[in-house]
Amino acid sequence: MAVKIENVNQSKLEELQGKVIGDVAGSMGLLLAYVGDKLDLYSALAEISPATSQELADSTGVNERYVREWLSANAAGGYVNYDPVSSQFSMTPEQAIIFAAEGNPACMQGFFQAVVSSYTDEPKITEAFRQNKGVPWGDHSECLFCGTERFFRPMYAENLIGSWLPALDGVREKLESGAKVADIGCGHGSSTIIMAQAYPNSTFYGFDFHEPSIEHAQERARAAGVARNTIFEVVTAKEYPGKNYDLVTIFDALHDMGDPVGACDHIAKSMSDGGTFMLVEPFAGDSLEENSHPLGQIYYSFSTLICLPASRSQEVGLGLGAQAGQKRLTEVLNEGGFGQVRRAAETPTNIVLEARV
Ligand SMILES: C[S@@+](CC[C@H](N)C(=O)[O-])C[C@H]1O[C@@H](n2cnc3c(N)ncnc32)[C@H](O)[C@@H]1O
Fold it and tell me: What percentage of the chain reaches a pLDDT higher than 70?
């Protein structure tokens, strides 16, 4: 379709051009970062730094010409450093954290992996727009599930036991003496396993409707030594079994559900008297204006490409979106039977709501 353009402001055009060129550089940079992660190039460079391209090639078994071009792009982008006198490349501790420190909350590789999966799955998303259909969570490429786990797990490890659970009224005491907990939409089970490790007297049920994720969670739980107090099951959020849960949690999954109100209704009915529902959702304000910043752009983009299509592939297909904000989330919780809702904690990337019937 030809677009008619008049009255161009040259300086505004150049300003936008500059911004978009930066975005293009970033999109290429993170793809190369993903390649480097798969080939262990960053961890090797961090280990032997400073090193020539030949030395990095020798230590990783990757062709020197490929390594040199990859290093050059990384140096041009400021992801690694280059010394023209010695022809050596190096990484600062800060660069090593972002690109090579697996498990560090500031390491971005899981994030990159999730972005790459969105590029891979783009044809399905465009077709969903065209056909006004959804795309089920399970139809995404494998690296989405692994990227989600890699990105979220360090954040949960850093915040869940030390600040989020203690911020809930009376929950820590119940967990210490022995509580029954359900973690809904648990994915690969990161949050379930972290809680099960911290509270061995409690029993943790991890529920998710994506079978490969549940199989993965079971393996992870065995490896982490918490098979005794974790039970994982393939089931939807509206159909999971059991009653009298003292604590129900959802981490970054309610907005992916087709019927979040129905899920909340089921959760409310499955809880013990005085039970608590902890809802963790992406950080957001209550309006587009408040969310118009780089993190908001990232979340709205993931929401467009993953969360909204996932929700719209399920019954009801509410399409809450990943930037719903506390006000809208509270409406959903109220409709689902939770009369009391408060913000118990927050980080720059998440809000943590405590809901009670
Ligand atoms: C973004 S992932 C979050 C996974 C996990 N909670 C975490 O934080 O790593 C969303 C999860 O919600 C699950 N999910 C989406 N809709 C669901 C539903 N209706 N019932 C059960 N699980 C659902 C997906 O299978 C996926 O594992």
Answer: 100
Q: What pLDDT score was predicted for residue 346? A: 98
Distance, CA 255 to ligand 1 centroid (Å)? 9
On the question of pLDDT at 311 being above 90, the answer is: yes
Tell me, yes or no, whether 255 lies in a domain. yes
* DSSP string across 162-194: IIIGGGSTTHHHHHHH--EEEEET-TT-HHHHH
Which structure tokens are listed for 234? 């393939």
State which ligand 1 atom lies nearest to the alpha carbon of 210: 25
Q: Are 106 and 73 in contact (CB under 8 A)?
A: no
- Mark whether 134 and 273 lie in a shared domain: yes
pTM attached to this predicted model:
0.96
In ligand 1, the atom with minimum distance to the C-alpha of 138 is: 25
Q: How close is the Cα of 292 to the center of ligand 1, in Å? A: 26
Are 96 and 145 contained in the same domain? no
| DSSP structure class, residue 121 | T
Please report the beta strands in the chain, taking only residues with DSSP state E, as ranges in sequence order.
81-83, 88-90, 180-184, 203-208, 230-234, 245-251, 271-282, 340-346, 350-356
Q: What are phi and psi of 129, to 5 degrees?
A: -60, -50
Structural domain span for residue 66: 26-101
CB 207 within 8 A of CB 186: yes
How many structural domains is the chain composed of? 2
pLDDT digit string, tens, across residues 170-197: 999 999 999 999 999 999 999 999 999 9
Return d(Cα 221, Cα 6) in angstroms, integer.
61
- Could you tell me if 284 and 186 lie in one domain? yes
Closest alpha carbon to 320 in 276, 240, 262: 262
The residues lining ligand 1, judged by C-beta closer than 6 Å to any ligand atom, are: 137, 148-149, 152, 185-187, 190-191, 208-210, 213, 236-237, 251-253, 256-257, 310, 314
CA 39, CA 69: separation in Å to the nearest integer? 14
pLDDT (average), residues 204-214: 98
Does residue 165 surpass a pLDDT of 90?
A: yes
